[in-house]
Amino acid sequence: MSMSLSPKAQVVFAVLSYSFCSGSLVLVNKLILHHLPYPSLVITFQLWAALIFIQVADAFRLIEVDPVRWKNVKPYLAYTVAFSLGVYCNMKSLSMSNVETVIVFRALSPLIVSVADALFLGREWPSARSWVALCVIAAGAYGYAMTDAQFKTQGIIAYFWPTLYLLVISFEMAYGKKIISGVDLKTRSGPVLYTNMLGWPPMLGFAWMGGEYSRFYNDIMNRAIKGEPLFSKAAILLSLLGCVVGTGIGYSGWYCRDKVSAASYTLIGVMNKCLTVLVNLLIWDNHAPMEGIASLALCLVGGAFYSQAPMKKAHLESAPNVSDKDEERQDNVSMAPLLRRGGATAESKP
User: Fold this and answer.
1) Hey, is 230 helix, strand or coil?
2) So what's the pLDDT on residue 35?
3) CA separation for the pair 92, 210 (Å, rounded)
4) Interatomic CA distance for residues 325 and 340, integer angstroms
5) Which pLDDT score, from 0 to 100, does residue 332 have?
6) Nearest Cα to 181, choosing from 6, 336, 349, 341?
7) Average predicted confidence (pLDDT) for the chain
8) Looking at residue 319, what is its pLDDT?
9) DSSP 62
10) φ, ψ for residue 280 (rounded to 5)?
11) 3-state class of 123 per DSSP?
């Protein structure tokens, strides 16, 4: 795929595939949890499914997979810790406040990641237009939250966990891009393998903290006593679909992260969330206030005006004595702005 597409087309494909998988997974998981109300166990099952897919496909030589090495485990372990902490902070935020509060703080993350891009990842500072666009997104998210009465009545303690969630996810987004640059994996399956392999043990821990094991056991026993099927056909089919989409988001997410800056990747996630909420309001909530819909639309407008910051010249010129092929790889690894340059393309990775 990478060999047959121009650099700009690769970016478009990466963004669209990641957005499709992200939005689909939100919808599918929402339906799964209606039948199987065990969120951490559902996620664990999806992570296991991706690992099984990688191992089976590798065994039949359908894909190539990087071998597991300790030098690569360490950086991905740090990323997994940040990801798991972000999931925990998100759950605590939802328990202490509400979805609207979390959306507002999530919308602030591109601002922080833009600073990290400039300070640590070799990019220029965002243009004035991009800063305005990011502020418009934050203002739109705040405007949406203000239409919810519960948001306006939260005490100060309700903002501790959302603030911690904001800091953790900002670090996770910037560090994820750093991994793409610094860890020498040859295949597209490598990042998916490492993150899923290291990601399921914390999910089982969250399941224990949330009392999911006892609820799952009690539900199974009650159904067995009543002579009912342990799992409905809808639950089984949706779970299988969730595994397919979950594997897809693993590949598309890391592919997209490879093609855009950390701030752009973070912004795409915010736009996906705003668009998903907007669609939910328009389709399922007939009493949604027009102010809330207009605020989410403002977020999308802000995202449309955002422009990815270019790489610093010194960063691009850091390795002048390399071959053409090495220069292509260096452009990709050092996160050159694929949106505005027509130069290097990534090496083909299955």
Assistant:
1) coil
2) 92
3) 11
4) 20
5) 38
6) 336
7) 81
8) 40
9) S
10) -60, -40
11) strand
Secondary structure (3-state) at 158: helix
Sign, CA dihedral 81-46-170-70, equals positive
Least confident of 105-114, 165-174, 208-217: 105-114
Average pLDDT over residues 66-84: 90
Number of residues assigned to the chain = 350
Match 């979950």 to its residue by tokens: 246
pLDDT on residue 334: 32
> Which tens digits make up the pLDDT trace of 122-132?
888 898 988 99
**Span 296-323, average pLDDT:** 70
pLDDT tens for each residue of 228-259: 898 999 999 999 999 999 999 999 999 999 99
Using alpha carbons only, how large is the chain's radius of gyration in Å? 21
Q: Is there a contact between 16 and 344 (Cβ–Cβ < 8 Å)?
A: no
Q: Are 274 and 266 in contact (CB under 8 A)?
A: no
Distance CA 128, CA 262 (A): 18
Start-end of H helices in the chain: 7-35, 39-59, 70-96, 99-120, 128-146, 149-152, 160-182, 189-209, 212-226, 233-259, 262-284, 290-305, 313-316, 324-333
**pTM for this entry:** 0.78
Distances in Å between the Cα of 57 and the Cα atoms of 2, 52, 61, 194 are 20, 8, 6, 16
Q: What is the C-alpha separation between 131 and 202, in angstroms, rounded?
A: 36
Amino acid at 199: G
pLDDT at 2 over 80: no
Which one, of 89, 81, 78, lies nearest residue 202 by Cα?
81
- What is the sign, positive or negative, of the torsion defined by CA atoms of 118, 121, 127, 131? negative
CB 274 within 8 A of CB 21: no
Cα 63 from Cα 46, distance rounded (Å): 20
Instruction: Measure the CA–CA gap between 112 and 118, rounded to whole angstroms.
Output: 10
